[in-house]
Amino acid sequence: MTASASNTGDKPFNRLLLTGAAGGLGQVLREALQAHASIIRVSDISPMAPAAGEHEEVVTCDLADKAAVLALAKDVDAIVHLGGISTERAFEEILEANIRGTFHIYEAARKEGIKRVVFASSNHVTGFYPQNEEVDAHSPRRPDCYYGLSKSYGEDLATFYFHRYGIETVSLRIGSSFPEPRNVRMLSTWLSFADLGHLVERALLCKDVGHTVVYGMSANRDVWWNNRYAAHLGFNPQDSSERFRAQMEQQPKPAADDPSAHLQGGAFTQAGPFGD
Ligand SMILES: NC(=O)c1ccc[n+]([C@@H]2O[C@H](COP(=O)([O-])OP(=O)(O)OC[C@H]3O[C@@H](n4cnc5c(N)ncnc54)[C@H](O)[C@@H]3O)[C@@H](O)[C@H]2O)c1
Domain ranges in the chain? Predict the structure, then answer.
């Protein structure tokens, strides 16, 4: 178990840092992480709602601001890094929030002696694979947009900081984590909020992860990803998208040349370019 040497409470961590805490998944994890840390430092560039709970510290921080990120990580035992731009945007926006921002997180971990990071990567790191091809953590990456490229860089940072500084990371290549799937593609990629909470728990608590890459998906019927190289995490999803199948299949079918119908990254493979 990765725990703070200074932690004397009955929870594995004294203080966890959660970036992107005002976002969709951040709000889910604020709740789910309570069981694992005495204090959660919740941070975002956007206002936090609801406001700080009893065991939370709210810190507003732009991930692009290196000095602010270094201060943000002070006295933290582990980091769950969700913050950043979560869809395709102009490269300059992605550069600041995701590329510089994730570099700042790892520099802060190095300087503060933090040994565990859970990084919200994305399935868009391998979005240019066809839907009929199985992909695993060792498959060559095929990022499908600037956003996917930034997540691929985040995974490279994780590998580098492990080999050079012994900072361990679990990179979560999250599929589609929403209350319910929204279309037929998400029948394959859906990750329920309950399974997300379980996955982040395993990513924080599992020993000796080095840099482990895991696809974040529920126990869906038709999946494109194989988590064989992340078996040691003990991630055992309980939900399935199957109960939404009839409803999703009533939606109009995408045209044959629509990437949603044949590429794993779906619409992200054609989004943009923004900023021209
Ligand atoms: N929800 C999904 O299905 C999904 C799928 C794949 C990957 N992910 C990744 O998981 C993470 C969380 O996803 P989400 O759905 O909650 O996204 P979200 O957009 O709702 O939340 C991201 C948060 O990051 C914050 N942020 C953006 N730029 C920032 C900056 N410069 N400094 C500080 N904070 C900044 C935003 O204000 C936002 O609250 C993201 O990194 C996303 O790329 C999510």
Answer: 13-269
- Tens digits of per-residue pLDDT, 124-165? 999 999 999 999 999 999 999 999 999 999 999 999 999 999
Q: Which two tokens stand for residue 115?
A: 């040994």
- Catalytic machinery residues: 147
Secondary structure percentages of the chain, helix, strand, coil, to 5:
40, 20, 40
What span, in angstroms and rounded, lies between the C-alpha atoms of 68 and 122?
Answer: 25
Topology given in CATH for the domain delimited by 13-269? Rossmann fold (3.40.50)
The DSSP bridge partners found for residue 271 are none
**pLDDT tens-digit readout, 225-246:** 999 999 999 999 999 999 999 9
Radius of gyration of the chain (CA): 18
19, 86, 150, 176: which to mutate for ligand 1, most atoms within 8 A of CB? Answer: 86
Spatial distance between the Cα atoms of 54 and 116, rounded to a whole number of angstroms:
24
